[in-house]
Each structure stands twice: as C-alpha cells, then as structure tokens.
Amino acid sequence: MRQSQRFNQTKQFPSFGRKPSGGSAADGGVLLAATELFVARSRHDIEEQEIFSELARNLISATSTEDRRRIASLLAPHAETPDDLLQHLARHSDHLTAYPALRYSARLSVDLLQKTAFSGPDTLRQAIANRASLPESIVTSLCENAGSSVIRILLDRNDVLLTQRQKSVLNNRREIVADLSAEMAHQDALNPEALMGQFLQLPAKLKSKAIAAAEMTSLVSQAQAPRKSRDTRTDAARLQLCDALVQEALTQNRPRFADLLSQGLGLPLATCDQLTQADQADGLAVALKALGTSKSQLATVLIRLHGEAASLETIRLLLRLHQTISSGASEVLVSQWVLSDQPEFTSAARHAPLYEAGKKHQSVGEKGLPFQENSLEQKSSGN
C-alpha cells in the first residue's frame, strides 16, 4: 500500500500565496528539476517522499510562473504527489497552474471541487467537467453555475447521466437551453415546454418530437377546457391579416410581411424576420397555420418568398406539414416561441391572444424540415 506523506498546508508551506520577486525563478529552477526526477519514478519510499515534500514546501513560492505551471502538469497525474501540495496547486490563482490538478488529480477533496464549480471561472469548470470521475453533487453544481461550454462537456460524456433534478436545473436556465437545445434534446434533457420553445433551433427529427409534444399539450388543454367559439370580429380580423400577408408575399416585401406576422402572433420582430428566410420555412408553415391560413395561401407565400431557394419537393413537404399539424398544436408552438424569448411571462400567458404586437428580442436559430425522413413514404397518400 502506498504511504502518502501528508503535511499541514499553512504550517509547512508558510509562504503559500506569496509571489517571488522579479520575473525569474528565485529558486534557480531547482524545484522543477527535482520534480522531473520525482515523477520519473512511479514509486517512492517514505524517505524520498519526505525529501521532496521538504523541498516543495521551501521552494514552491519562489518558483517562477512558467516553472510552476510545468511542475503542476507533472505532479497532477502522479500517484505519489503529496496531497496537500495538490490541494495548493488546485487552489492557485493562476488558472494554468490550477487546471492540471483540477483535471487529472484523483485525490482532490470534494469540498475544493464544489467550491471551484460554484465560483468558477469556466476555464477551471471545464477541467472539473473532464475529470475521470464526477460525484453527483459536483455535476449538480456545474449544472447550476457553469456556462454552455462546460455543460456541453457533460452532455457529451457517456458516463454522466443527468438526474431529473439536474435536467430541471438546466431547463430553468434559458441561456443554456438557447445555446444547447439540440444537445439537450438528444440526451432527453429538454422538458416538453423547452423542446417546443426551441423548435426553430432543432434538427428535423427533434422538430417532429416538438410537434408531437405540442399535439399532446393541445389535446390535454382541450380536454380540460374545451375551446370556445371565436368571435365573428376575431375571425374577420384573422382573415384580413391572412389576406394582407399573401399580398405582401406577392410583392416580396419581406420587412412588411415580417411586421404583419409579428403583430398577428405576438412574436418578436427579429424572430419573424428569421421566419422569412428559407432555412426557417417549416417554422413559417407552423406560424401561418396558427393564424389560420389556407393551404393555397401557404403555397402562394412559399413560392413567392422561397421559390428560388426551395425545391418543389421541399414545398410539398411544407404543405404536408401545414396539412398535418393541428391548429391547436401550431398555436401551442407559437405560444412557446413567445415565452422562450420573454422570461417575465407566466404560464398563463401561454393562452394569450395571438394578435398582440411583439417586443423586440433576439432572433432564434435554424435547421431542417420535420417529417422529412418519412414523408417520401407517404407520397402516395397525396397532399
């Protein structure tokens, strides 16, 4: 069994935290040379450990930054490195000194890892996220505090399975959902609301899941509170808006088309600008279904706005999507798009009218057509 040499950090390293004067190493590179000799052997007897510990406690603070970083990279993975020296390196204010110990040392205390995961920065959180083994408490702390680059590391690891609590934490962090919606969806870490809210950023396969979630939400909502018949004036306003959208599409006036769409759906104008682009044509089909456009009106809009960029097959897929998705599901999706950009909204806002002018928010993402994989098999069923 390995006999590790432990020593009191404050007592045996009295100069911890003090920097050497001048730009060169006050120890003349002695500690680096000793470290290279120390790590050259995998095992050491007690006397050798004591000698190295004594040398480290006397010279570590006098070592130059460059040498100290090299020492940290050599000692972090070494099995015989004194534990307290590892703790000191991991706590060091120089991130390039702390990184190797946080990344490779298996003997750091959970308290130290927890504190670093909480306080950051993300450079050091990345080191922790890449450790060979991660306690659940550390993963939770990273989910609560880390940025997108760190969360992506966790999502990419096959050995890290997020708990329901951790998934809930991530879903409540809108900036993480916006940046990593596709990765989270692939790991089944997005809840239905977040999945629907990030529809415009998802690949085709996941957009189909979002539509399925919207259909289920619509059915549940109708079962709990059957939809009331629309006011005649509301229907007239809706018809006028659809006609106006078609007219703007015919003239290819995209800014005015986006403005009308924003007024009709309560979506941010930036999002509606994005919906007029060819890579968001499926989102446009959903949005127009929520407004109650007919299939022929949608065909006119698609041909005039996207006819040059979209193939005939793509337009047929979009018409099929418009025909397949229910009005209730399309309204649920649009409501979630509004909510995803407006964190101050409450859940009651999901059922707000779709005819209020939207606020200015960031535009959303891009990608694919839902149902594209299985649509070719359904060609014979007609449009």
Automatic annotation (TrEMBL):
Coiled-coil intervals, chain numbering: none
Range of residues in the leader sequence: none
Disordered: region residues: 1-24, 357-383
Compositionally biased region (Polar residues): 1-13, 372-383
InterPro entries tied to this protein: DUF2336 (IPR019285)
Protein name as catalogued: DUF2336 domain-containing protein
